[in-house]
Amino acid sequence: TCGILHLILQCLPSSTLQDSLTRLGVGTKSDIETWLTGEKLGSSGTIDLLDWNSLINDRTKISNLLVVPNVESGHLEPLLDKFTEEEDKQMKRMLQRMDVLAKHAVENGVRLMVDAEQTYFQPAISRRTLEMQRRFNQEMPVIFNTYQCYLKDAYDNVTVDVELSRREGCYFGAKLVRGAYMYQERSRAAEIGYEDPINPDYEATNRMYHKCLEYVLEEIEHNRNANGFFTNQSFMEESHC
């Protein structure tokens, strides 16, 4: 965990980053320069290729935003090149509905809690939730992400997201649960042949749950003493056994 947080706190001059990425063959120099333009940056000045406003813009195609480097050609290519026009519209409508819900929650002073799913879906869910937090958690914690503590990487996920919210200057909202998809996760891991993402037993899950809980409580106490210098947090507990 210390190693992950150490990496998060590192900063590189844009010129150094561009040179390094070019040498690695991640993209052409012109491609990389477009990644570092102002419209691709978060409020902290960090790179963000998937800005929430761009995602919900009717004039922007989702498939144009989701691109990955082709190692052989050195150019960026669509990640979802099979995305049909109708699928692109469906994705856009889903994101716009999320935007409507978030705005309604802000206007009515209520919280919007985004549930967690299986690990093979969760990265996309968390990415969208963090974007919503950056947009809507400016005055108070409205958007809450869910962290399943039966996962081996739960603590890393919580600490990294707290640091990201600190950098972006928004409130961090978390719902801590134990988890609900143990059998599906283990079955898929065994079938495909990757490491089981679930803690080995209930006791290990409890330890992870309390480790995450204690970290968030310590952050809340620390922020209270820091007179608002650090990003504030809010959380709730649930038990999924």
Automatic annotation (TrEMBL):
<dbReference type="InterPro" id="IPR002872">
    <property type="entry name" value="Proline_DH_dom"/>
</dbReference>
<feature type="domain" description="Proline dehydrogenase">
    <location>
        <begin position="75"/>
        <end position="222"/>
    </location>
</feature>
<protein>
    <recommendedName>
        <fullName>Proline dehydrogenase</fullName>
        <ecNumber>1.5.5.2</ecNumber>
    </recommendedName>
</protein>
<dbReference type="GO" id="GO:0004657">
    <property type="term" value="F:proline dehydrogenase activity"/>
</dbReference>
<dbReference type="GO" id="GO:0071949">
    <property type="term" value="F:FAD binding"/>
</dbReference>
<keyword id="KW-0285">Flavoprotein</keyword>
<keyword id="KW-0560">Oxidoreductase</keyword>
<comment type="function">
    <text>Converts proline to delta-1-pyrroline-5-carboxylate.</text>
</comment>
<dbReference type="GO" id="GO:0005739">
    <property type="term" value="C:mitochondrion"/>
</dbReference>
<comment type="similarity">
    <text>Belongs to the proline oxidase family.</text>
</comment>
<dbReference type="Pfam" id="PF01619">
    <property type="entry name" value="Pro_dh"/>
</dbReference>
<keyword id="KW-0274">FAD</keyword>
<dbReference type="InterPro" id="IPR015659">
    <property type="entry name" value="Proline_oxidase"/>
</dbReference>
<keyword id="KW-0642">Proline metabolism</keyword>
<dbReference type="GO" id="GO:0010133">
    <property type="term" value="P:L-proline catabolic process to L-glutamate"/>
</dbReference>
